[in-house]
Structures are given as structure tokens and as C-alpha cells.
């Protein structure tokens, strides 16, 4: 009988941990790529590639709100930060949450820089693990964007 009570208490507390996945992802491990295309084309290709991969862009913002950037002083420089929805994946004794930020910044000579930031938060019982890497997926996403720009 005691075992059953302990198991029930354990199962009750395993679901009580709260997870907060940040909307803005710090540039801990950003994936950067420069494209020789204008800002609007790169923005459109990025949004389409994210949606094809199953990520819905839910919000956009001016990056200067979150980080100090000298580019925000120049009126000719365009920049936009895209926020995707949160993906939830159930694991055996854990749950994984993931989100992507895409930072699009126009440069000189018809170039546009794209910076992808990826975060996963894995919750195992009462412990949270943060990861800022997803190399294979991001490389695939960057190649998809490059194909859309050709």
C-alpha cells in the first residue's frame, strides 16, 4: 500500500514543473549566412522555408528592442526578428520544447544576413536542460532558403 501511495505522489509531482521557453533567444550559438539577395526576398524565402519545415511564424519584431545594434541607427538598413511557435515533443520520462528565431538584416551591395537561433528545453522530472544547437536541421533549412532564392 505504501508503494502505491509513493508512486502516486511521485507521478503527481512529475507533472508540476513549469517550463518557460523564451520568446527571444540569446545569440549563444547563432547560425549565420549571408545571401546575395535583397531583404524582402530573403525574408519571404525564410518564412516559406520555416513553414515548409513545420514551423509557423507567430510574431515579428524590431531586433533593436531586444539587443543593441548599430544598424538600427542607419535608416537604410532593414532588420526584422521572426519568432516561431513552440514545438512540444513527448519523450519517455521527459518533454522537449523547441523554438526558432530568425534575424534578417540587410547589408550593403544587395546582401542580406540571416541569423538563425535555435533553442530546446528538455524537462526531465524536476530538471531542465537547455540546448542552443541543432546543426543538421539548421543546415538543411539554410540550404532550403538558398534554393528558394535561386
How would you briefly describe this protein structure?
By secondary structure, this protein is an alpha+beta fold. The chain is built from 3 helices and 7 strands; from the N terminus they run αβαββββββα. The longest helix has 15 residues, at 135-149.
> How many helices?
3
Q: Helicity range of the residues? A: 25-40%
Biggest β-sheet strands, sense, barrel: 7 strands, antiparallel
Radius of gyration: 19 Å
Task: Domain count, please report it.
Answer: 1
Question: Pairing-aware structural class of the strands and helices?
Answer: alpha+beta
Quickly name the level 1 CATH class: Alpha Beta
Distance between the termini: 67 Å
SSE succession: HEHEEEEEEH
The whole-number mean of residue pLDDT values reads: 86
Q: What can you tell me about this protein's structure?
A:
Strands 1, 2, 3, 4, 5, 6 and 7 form a 7-stranded antiparallel β-sheet that branches. The relative contact order is 0.22. This protein has helices at 2-14, 39-52, 135-149, and strands at residues 31-35, 57-61, 79-84, 87-90, 94-106, 112-124, 127-131. The protein has a single domain, classed as 2-Layer Sandwich (TATA-Binding Protein). Helices cover 28% and strands 34% of the residues. It starts with a helix and ends with a helix. It is of the alpha+beta class.
